[in-house]
Design brief:
Four copies of one chain form a homotetramer. With 431 residues, the first copy, chain A, is α+β, with helices and mostly antiparallel strands. Helices cover 51% and strands 12% of the residues of chain A. In chain A, the strands form three sheets. Chain A has a five-stranded mixed sheet, sandwiched between helices.
Chain lengths: 431, 431, 431, 431
């Protein structure tokens, strides 16, 4: 059966037509190309011009990229008169018809511009990259947040959940994908192809990633899993196993999610990670009926930063606790000796340090927001340089219990409630 | 390698969770379910509720469906106060920030509602069906056009071109798809599976369709092609061939698109047909380098309806011509005897009968809008009942010449210009 | 990723080279072509000549086909002198080296001939068809059994089990395969595409087939399965269900294999059927953990033929029983009235009628040889014309209990032992 | 659609049944297991025992492996009495029936033994490995050649051409395959994954391999190709390009096969390599119509070994030429300075050094046997250590001209004729 991706067809069109339509115009500035893109009628012209814009963009210097986004922010808004007229009609008679007219009039032209750019083959790669750039300018150019919002609104629609595909990553996966897994691993670095193989090939290891058809070979997010007989208390036992710990597949009781990496900074705030672990749990349950426990082994990446700050809202007890921990040396011995103290400060950090109503710690936000709860704390669990300096060597097990996930998620989403194992309660200081 | 469609995972979730969350609420009205859908926080709850809405909708009577759309039209607009405030801020300072805020405030809540419905598995099938229903109410309930517009805006984004996949339809295609080809054929009826086979299996026949990943097994539009040594002058020679006309593949000179069917009324105005033939031309060129001519053999489906009407804008000569043709009997003999007269009326119909600046004939609009031009007219080309009664037995070859497609398309799109073969010029009456 | 079947490449070669090598020789007789095939050195020439032989064979009349096989039988044996010399060397010193030499000298040249024919693309289809023809000549030309044996020896190697692929046949299967399922169904005729759909599409029906990569789109053997809550007592309840009996998938307790068809007469005696049901049982267990019972509902296709014969070995009691049944009318009423009598004759037929040490009934031979045992007999179970005339309306459940399959199979294979349900024991006459 | 490899089903069977059937017998010696395998009736028992034999074999020491093969050679021949009787019947009446009986009686039991071993899942890997071992014993145990012959006869049938699949090897290929490409490259070593990528990923590089369904992830033979504008004169320009030489795909004129590696020593003498390049030529012609020249850039791996030997058959002129070259230093400078001399010795080596009627050089045998001809010689083409020491830095272009391949192949196969470019004629000494 002959198959043909429409993208491949368009690619052919772009290549062949480029010569026909654009001799000479290669010299056009990117702003002129944008004008042309918005003015064109022909569909083929549009996709050829869109490709030109995207290629041109890639060659821009940092300064010119900033200029490009400023142009988007300033010159691709709306026709103010049309908006006013549409509003007045709506204000007089707020019918659905008038609302729709207003909605269209008030739609930033950037939306149409991004849609037209997206009509050219492989534009998704370029546009995700474009937003990655854009986010670097936001701090110093807050007005560009409008442009970022437009990207988010369109990406949310294009990267809809219905298109996501979960794939197993293993030694049969293509090198093109595996190379990116090595590159994107953000929690526990993968040193080389041998190290990669030790994480995805042994029978007691699994790796899963979400993909999207518009981003060929590009994982969006992936999780590495270790299959074990017990909940692990340190990361080294996992990273150094190399498959020697494999046992008969019916004896595994526990799946540990020990590394979760988001791959596409350009897709920040486009949510799909919150379904990843739930789907992986389901896949693993199907393959290994004996596994009943699904936990993470997670870093506490914001701990030290929080220890280093003080706010007026903290109780004297908490301040005292933080001071005690800060006084400890950052080495293995001190960490082992003062395990209980560290455990106490970790738990109070997770529960009391907030960003709005949610936890300040990003990893905690991710798992608690997914409906997991805080199950166990381990000190002396990660003696890597990063582990000591960020988390005082401590790690957390967040527990994914499918029975409670939805209720936990709702409570968390509405009230910021954090569920935890009762046994940890005694660690909590009065807030 | 384990693969998992996210849709399959969500389906499992919906099945398992329905019992958990919704005991009792099965009795909720569809309006209450919509309220619930818009109020929910939990992601799983949302996709379960969405599925309930869609299932509930399917069980509604026609009257209740109309009520459902009226509810959408009346109660899912926007917060009028918020719109007013957003407009005032924008009016005072028309920054991109304020525009974005206005744009969001003025977005009809229907958009979010449709997005939430679309989060549940296989929602695309349901929503396309929903719009099919909706279109039936538009004539008598013009206010529902607002709702239809919202469907169009969201469908345009979801059914983006980048996702379309062209597939060959042949005897190796699944029965699930072939059954729909039989059902959806709109031009020359397919009588049974044997008739189908005679159109897709012989070496001198081809069939291509566009598919979209969210609509599994559902062709969006398909075209049937005959490979020949000459441009055909009648449809019967094609429909009755049954493959006996197959010759050595290097001897074909002409590909004839003799039937094009849109399959999804719920996707009307979402354009993808205009790329279908261009991509098929490219596929055929790759497979058969000897084929240089790509034409349609098309009905003139609006001819008789136009003959039956009169307008003040018509010249006396045209009126006279129409009268002469109307006086002819609707049978084979009369049609053959007065070939030239019919040819004349057909050509003037194609060029002069307008809907706005474009041709009144829908098939002409499709092909001319694609960049084809009128190449030849044939009388006595289709003696089927439908052929005689709609088109006086006449048919048209629209020519797809890739060199001129883009320029033809642009002229047509901007000015409504219709290109035609010079040899036809003498048939034209002064307008 | 570019893939290329080697067969497709060879097909291209054959097409292109045919003109180059064989202008003129199209007139060669098939015997001359065989000579040429055995004499050629060039590999491309060999595959082109092989294709010519196969095409030429297809055009032969029945008489000439018989002549073709006689030629194979008479003229493609061995060099008698070489055999004699090789034997003498072996006889003198029966070393492995001398045995190998003798083995090669005594290999009928037909083997090499068939191997060379099989080097051309799609030869498998032709050779299987060739043996189908051959089997028709065996009765009147018993010397051709040698040729048949050579086919069997080579087919056994080419159609090795390791290549068999089990596929689900359902409404997503290609029309090219489904058409053959309709054609090959040998037990309960499939009337048309709607009837087919009712057997493979409903959620309480399944169909599985074995395929081989060299026979594209050609099922080798297939089985139709009904999922039920109880062991069925008649075939009509299954054939007329049309899916209305579908229940929640967790409630099925029983899988019934109600139709098993061998598709390729040319592959007779090449065993693979004996693994089909075992693998299907395994697939169904995976999908439906609630199904614990796997039985057939099988015809007793040799019953009436046996009733019509008499042998000296039969006891007076058995002859009397047969006479009583033969005296019954062949209609529904008589069959229902004398159920017990029919049951008795059926059971004694299954256990006492023999072909060598194995049962005379071919269906019984298949299932008992697979390790199943006789579980239940049903009278009034198939009132179709064929059912009444072949089996007096009776059917059998053969039970597949995976725990006993291997031991049953061994006992049956070695001693011809037939296992049955103890409850049936009272039906047995003294042999 | 559910698919199930029969192999996977058998694997499950073997796992589950092993416990049932073989408790205790794990201790059986491999010779006892072979006895059991030949004696068993049950099909499941047979595939379980076969797996036991293969696993047991893997654990044997070298000495015991030799013992295993000696056992095969001595004890799995034929029933001498049966052979004698069959011969006598045949000798008296040499009918096809009697020949077939003799053929079966004289078939070494090793054949049936290997067939039974091959019935167990993944046996192909084991048996290919077994023959790899066997070949190491042949020199010192020439009687084992009988066993090797039996392997060859069965492998020839199992690894029939019709099953070979050509796949493109590129950066989208699975790591499991790529890892083997690195390992099996036998001509120009691949240093690491980056080096691999530079050979398969750039647009001006291609790699193709033959695979067989029974050897999952195992390439049988692969070829690396460089796309160029000219025939290259040295290997370094190819190995060091890293894709920087990529040009517009329509500008390539030449495909260079610069490395061909056989991967499976256990499949030696099972021919499929001779079709690899022809099929690759066809694939490349389809993708790059501008490529008209298909040549190798090949080492002359036997040159120095030949220079180091003398035979009585050599003319004084040839001996003199060899002496001159042997007197040269093995370094870049000497090689460059005496280019013509080296060219002369190379050409006379290729044409005059023989093994039987064919060239002594293994690379020459491969390409000339494929129908290629000697097109150009390059000195100073490979300054690697291996290149200098084996070939005096020289390389050959063998030309694949599809018009002459078959005729060249036939002449070569029948008479050992070597075709070469007329321009090289002057280099030839009188033989």
């Amino acid at each position: 059966m002959a198959f043909g991706r429409f993208q491949d067809f368009l690619s052919g069109l772009v290549k062949r037509q480029r010569g026909l339509f654009f001799t000479g115009s290669e010299e056009a500035s990117i702003d002129e190309l944008l004008d042309k893109l918005m003015g064109t009628v022909g569909e083929v012209s549009a996709i050829v011009t869109a490709r030109q814009v995207l290629d041109h963009y890639d060659d821009l210097t940092d300064d010119h990229k900033l200029g490009f986004f400023k142009n988007l922010e300033q010159n691709y808004n709306a026709n103010q008169v049309a908006v006013k007229l549409a509003f007045e009609a709506y204000d007089e008679e707020p019918s659905s018809t008038n609302l729709n007219k207003l909605s269209k009039a008030a739609e930033p032209m950037r939306h149409e511009l991004l849609r037209r750019l997206n009509s050219t083959p492989d534009a998704a790669h370029n546009l995700v990259g474009m937003r990655t750039d854009l986010r670097n300018y936001l701090r110093d150019n807050p007005e560009l947040n409008s442009v970022d919002e437009d990207f988010v609104r369109l990406f949310s629609s294009w990267f809809g959940r219905g298109f996501l595909v979960l794939k197993t990553i293993n030694w049969s996966t293509s090198a093109a994908v595996l190379e990116r897994i090595i590159r994107y691993e953000a929690v526990h670095e993968i040193k080389d192809w041998d190290d990669l193989r030790s994480r995805i090939d042994p029978p007691n290891r699994r790796c899963f990633a979400f993909f999207h058809p518009a981003l060929v070979d590009e994982p969006l997010i992936f999780v590495e899993v270790a299959l074990l007989k017990d909940i692990p208390t340190s990361i080294d036992s996992i990273l150094e196993d190399k498959g020697t710990g494999a046992i008969d597949s019916s004896e595994y009781s526990t799946a540990v999610f020990y590394s979760i990496s988001n791959c596409q900074p350009g897709l920040q705030n486009i949510s799909f990670g919150n379904f990843l672990i739930k789907q992986v749990v389901q896949e693993l349950q199907g393959e290994f009926p004996s596994i009943k426990t699904f936990v993470t082994l997670s870093p506490i990446s914001g701990l030290q930063a929080w220890l280093d700050t003080k706010t007026d809202l903290e109780t004297p007890e908490l301040i005292d606790l933080k001071n005690q921990v800060n006084a400890l040396s950052l080495n293995k011995e001190a960490t082992e000796e003062h395990g209980h103290l560290i455990k106490q400060v970790v738990f109070n950090y997770l529960l009391q340090a907030k960003k709005g109503k949610y936890p300040a710690d990003p990893v905690a936000r991710f798992h608690l927001g997914n409906g997991a709860y805080v199950y166990q704390l381990h000190t002396g669990a990660d003696f890597s340089k990063k582990g000591l300096s960020q988390s005082r060597g401590a790690m957390v097990n967040y527990m994914y219990d499918l029975r409670y996930i939805e209720i936990n998620h709702e409570r968390y989403a509405i009230d910021g409630d954090i569920e935890f194992n009762d046994k940890l309660k005694s660690l909590l200081l009065e807030p």
